[in-house]
Amino acid sequence: MINVILFGKPGAGKGTQADFLKKKFNLIHISTGDLFRNNIKNKTQLGLLAKSFMDKGDLVPDEVTVDMLKDEVNKNSDVRGFIFDGFPRTISQAQALDKFLKSINMTINATISLEADDYVLEKRLIKRGMLNGRSDDQDISKIRNRFKEYNLKTSPLKKYYDDYGKLYTISGIGSINEIKNKLINLIKKIN
Ligand code: AMP
């Protein structure tokens, strides 16, 4: 099995690259952001709750996020592996993920961080917001709050995975193709 976490700030390219990698390695792509947006679209209770946080660019509470993630993994048995995109985003989510994966005899093979400077990411997100209509991509104060959430709650995960020897870093600057090839080579190497 190959289980990879794609890590990085909003706009780093996690979703775009996960789309390629899932096809290349025949993996299931789980994006917690997409799952929340689907719940919002379908007007579920979870969607209603998530929206109140997402609209401000805040993280959704750990408990509901972890439960949603577990449900999604459990729905996909007998698979070659998973790409986790946008999860975990806090130390507590990472610990819950470790515990959960262990209980089903799985483990994370690699956490790959896509790195880019804030000013590049801001420009990308504003452009993306014009195309996808996402309100949290269109408002600079929401974007900056998402970066703040990342710096405060998510960036400590780099040390968490580095301590396990599982952290890999790739520049998120360059053409989509270049980054894709670097990711493919890295996953082939660690697998
Ligand atoms: P994304 O599509 O990954 O940029 O996520 C969009 C928004 O969904 C984030 O700004 C959070 O409000 C929420 N979200 C997505 N994944 C998580 C997570 N793992 N933990 C908490 N909130 C999340």
What are the low-pLDDT stretches, counting only 5+ consecutive residues below 50? none
CATH topology tier name? Rossmann fold
The CATH homologous superfamily name equals: P-loop containing nucleotide triphosphate hydrolases
- How would you describe the oligomerization state of the chains in this entry? single chain
SSE sequence, one letter per element: EHEHHHEHEHHHHEH
Count of discrete structural domains:
1
Please explain how this structure is put together.
This protein is α/β, with parallel strands linked by helices and 191 residues long. It is 61% helix and 14% strand. It has a single domain, classed as P-loop containing nucleotide triphosphate hydrolases (Rossmann fold). It has a 5-stranded parallel β-sheet with strand order 2-3-1-4-5, with helices on both faces. 31% of the residues are buried. The structure holds adenosine monophosphate (AMP). Adenosine monophosphate binds at residues 10, 32-33, 36, 53-54, 57-60, 65, 86-89, 93, 136, 146.
